[in-house]
Amino acid sequence: MTFELKKIGDVVEVHENGELVSRYLFNNRRQFKPYFYPLNAPGGLCVTEDGPRDHVHHRSMWTAHGDINGVDFWSETHESGKQIVKMVSIEDAEDFGVVESDEVWIAETGSPVVDVFKKFTFRKTLNGLRIIDVEVDFTASYSDIRFGDTKEGGIISLRVAPSVREIAGGTIRNSRGGLGEEGCWGKRAEWCDYTGSVSGKTVGVAVFDYPSNLRHPTYWHVRAYGLFAANPFGISYFEGDRSLNGSITIGKGDCLGFRYRVLLHLGVVDSNVLNEVFTEYCRIGG
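-> structure tokens emitted (286 positions)
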């Protein structure tokens, strides 16, 4: 069997051909949110960082938003909301491995705000490319839900490893030809890629925004210091115009879903190849 997933207590390990791909960490007592760490490119090279000193709430690969009905699920303070995992299920096969996370996000008071379902499908590594397809569904089970206009968020968020950061020599680029934080932060694009060095080898991670997602192509909250997030809500910040309002409200009982493809890669991947990955992603569906 190519993929083997193991659930041990509040950790799920994902292995491909005996190599650790990642761990899903979901300790409700100690964590504000569940997340994947490490996140390894082929060869076991970790492309992410967990809880750096400058932003301890950046958790390798995670989902969060800083204003849902006024509750901050992005930061990790005594006033922040928490993402409580109710159940995690796993499936493994020769060609894929799946982690599903059923959650309720609660305010600091303990009141439920929104139900969230996440699905992560790990695909077989081919030609130095490792794919994770991500689904995130928000359901307004308790009341109307308002996602506020703030840059502090990412429906898919990553914090790249220190040696991958742009300030350490890494490269940020997007599908529209943008380069660096200056050319990619707050810009809309079908995909964004962050490439750098780990243990002397070139590795990277790209994220692709599925066409059915809200406000596709999404805005990217991507920084030279290592943050890398897809955020369709913080329009007033990204456009530099506070008269704009990127907030959106979904009615009680309704669902807002997002789909992304995460690509972990060895070496520098040509933009034409990344465009082909995006086209294939669009063809097969999210």
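Residues 32 and 82 are 5 Å apart (CA to CA).
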